[in-house]
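agent: user wants the structure for Polyamine-modulated factor 1 from Salvelinus namaycush. delegating to structure tool.
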Amino acid sequence: MEETGETTPEEIRHKGAKSSGDNVEDQSSNATGDVSSQSSGHGNDSRRSDGAEPRRNRLLLFNKVMEKSLQKFISDASFHRFAHTFHPFYKKNPQVTENIHKQFIEDLQRTIQDDINKLIEEGVLQCKLDELNKLEEAAKNSQDPAWRPSGVPEQDLCSFVTPYYLKQEAYLRRELKKILQENAVLAQRVQAGREGIAQTEQRIATAVDEWKAPAQTAFAEFQALSSSLCPPATFDV
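agent: tool returned. relaying tokens verbatim.
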């Protein structure tokens, strides 16, 4: 039905409270269905070992915190505020405005719930909670006092980063030792190559010397023979 008269703020507030309350109540049931199923599942699985209780409690607590936060956020986005923001449009089409707000709340809640599910999946929340359980169990069995800040930021920072730097130093030392060993092997190969080249040069020089001696002897014999066959006095005039 189209409304032609002016709408008072009290009517908007009344409709906004009613609409937002219904939207939050109806839509939060879809967004928190997993929480209810987990709660009933926890009741049926009460016969499991006590070691799994902290993990279930943490997951349940996380889900409940997300549920309360989502409900509070959705309740803040009430129809009254929506209509007040778009008051000119609300005066012309109150029913359409209410439908738009309802669709907006549904889409917003679904998007937020999807983001929360992605956060749980991508952040590997269950594994992180398992690690937290292991740390808690290890802390119970440890006799050493728990770490507490000393009040001096420099000391606390050093105590935190020093083990990391020591690990990095050990890693760099191992890499340096490996590189030095590789360089030593390469140096041995280069030295062996140089010795091989020197030996090759020595063999070439020896072969050249061995070739020069017979050549010089043959040349001397040829000169002697040519002198005996053709004495210089024969050609004198």
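agent: one observation worth passing along. The helical segments are 9-31, 33-44, 53-76, 79-85, 87-92, 94-122, 125-141, 153-229.
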